[in-house]
Write a structure and sequence with these properties.
With about 425 residues, this protein is α+β, with helices and mostly antiparallel strands. Helices cover about 55% and strands about 10% of the residues. A seven-stranded mixed beta sheet has the order 3-4-5-2-1-8-9. Strands 6-7 form a two-stranded antiparallel sheet. A two-stranded parallel sheet has the order 10-11. β6 and β7 form a beta hairpin. It is elongated and about 90 Å long. The chain starts with 5 loop residues before the first helix and ends with a helix.
Length: about 425
């Protein structure tokens, strides 16, 4: 069990407050699982016999703020000093359609546990720190087993997203399902077509950074699940473990892993990656970062930067797409897995090490200086001249404002 933290203490206060008011309440789900694994939970969830209206009214009398984040589904959020605590009324399923469930509020913790996805996520912890386990979740935690609560087929048909959650927990926790569960998952994979792209992408994002991604991803491919969520990258050229770990070590594992799989599979045109990012409902920022992998590959493979300026401008392009330091922190680990790019990448890295200070320095001449010296009206022509000056500056042809003005005058005479 992990040591208590501030968020735990606030969740415990909320739990005891509801209990004192007559509502049976326990911590539930992932926070209990993580505490048993010795981890500090990212957030805390409470399960209670109080309805959302009863719970919110109770905390208002205690001068605490609540937010009705999902009252139709039994959930409200309590704002505590250390952060939000999500509180949900015990529930039972009335009907399900593979995407959504119609639920009714209940008062039975065992019944609530029976409707959850995996045994390790169906644990409760009371105010005294005692674990309440109706489904054998503690044993599965000790054994490192991913097991659905009840019949796997039933749980999956209630919500097909649970197929991806299985692989996500495999990747992030290193827990493995049994062979029978994997067969059931493979048989039900077509149901993923009914799940919204936003929910699918969210699971991919969480799974991609997991330490056990390699076996989880391999199993996804074998079960035919991978082609359901990424048909553009099917068949998948499976990366080496070294490459996969390198991609995961970047500033954005989901983008890097996706890019690495795309490039390995021959999906390396900017338009194709932009279309993939749009289909996956990725943010514009992440979509831009993904698309630049194709741009960078093309620039390095088809026209290796020949001089200092071209190499430094290439690095500028990386940073424009993904932020400062993104060449080493995002692009190089993925592009480095392409053998044909090794020489070009090395040249860029050596140039940055020796002349990178030129990129970090402010250009001694500004657009206003160009206008003043040439008499041109601000516009595209001034931008073109600035670009030429920047290239010359990167190549070391001038270093001071005076030298830049002289170079500008010489070019104008030509």
């Amino acid at each position: 069990m992990s040591a208590p933290d501030r968020r735990y203490n606030d969740a415990l206060k909320a739990m005891k407050s509801l209990e004192k008011a007559g509502y049976r309440t326990m911590m539930a789900g992932g926070c209990v699982r993580d505490r048993l694994l010795g981890k500090t939970p990212a957030d805390y969830d409470l399960a209670t016999t109080a309805t959302p209206e009863q719970g919110m009214l109770h905390f208002r009398t205690e001068k605490l703020t609540t937010v009705p984040t999902g009252v139709d589904h039994g959930t409200f959020t309590l704002l505590m000093p250390s952060g939000p605590v999500e509180i949900t009324t015990l529930r039972k399923d009335v009907s399900t359609d593979g995407r959504h469930a119609e639920v009714a509020f209940g008062t039975d913790f065992a019944e609530d546990a029976a409707r959850r996805d995996f045994t390790i996520n169906a644990l409760f912890e009371d105010a005294e720190g005692q674990i309440v386990d109706f489904v054998g979740g503690q044993n599965d935690l000790k054994s490192g087993v991913l097991r659905f609560v009840g019949e796997p087929e039933t749980r999956i048909h209630e919500d097909y997203l649970r197929i991806l959650r299985l692989f996500r927990f495999w990747s992030t926790l290193g827990f493995t399902p049994d062979a029978e569960t994997l067969v059931t998952v493979a048989d039900a994979r077509d149901g993923l077509a009914r799940i919204s792209q936003e929910r699918v992408t969210q699971e991919w994002w969480k799974m991609s950074a997991g330490p056990a991604l390699a076996p989880a991803l391999q199993a996804m491919i074998s079960a035919g699940v991978f082609r359901m969520i990424l048909p553009e990258v099917t068949p998948c050229v499976f990366p080496t473990l070294v490459d996969l770990k390198a991609w995961q070590s970047t500033l954005s594992a989901p983008v890097a892993v996706l890019a690495g799989l795309c490039l390995a599979d021959g999906l390396h045109e900017e338009a194709a990656l932009i279309a993939l990012a749009e289909r996956m409902r990725m943010s514009r920022h992440d979509g831009k970062r993904l698309a630049f992998f194709a741009t960078a590959r093309r620039q390095l493979l088809l026209g290796e930067p020949k001089d200092i300026a071209e190499r430094l401008l290439f690095l500028d392009g990386c940073e424009a797409a993904a932020g400062q330091g993104s060449f080493e922190k995002l692009y190089a680990p993925v592009l480095g897995s392409i053998t044909d790019l090794a020489h070009a990448l090395k040249a860029v890295q050596l140039t940055e090490a020796k002349f990178g200070h030129r990129r970090q320095a402010e250009l001694p001449l500004s657009g206003k200086d160009v206008v003043r010296q040439t008499g041109l009206t601000p516009g595209p022509e001034v931008g073109t001249i600035l670009g030429q000056l920047k290239r010359a500056y990167y190549n070391g042809e001038w270093t001071t404002k005076e030298q830049g003005i002289a170079l500008l005058a010489a070019h104008r005479k030509e």
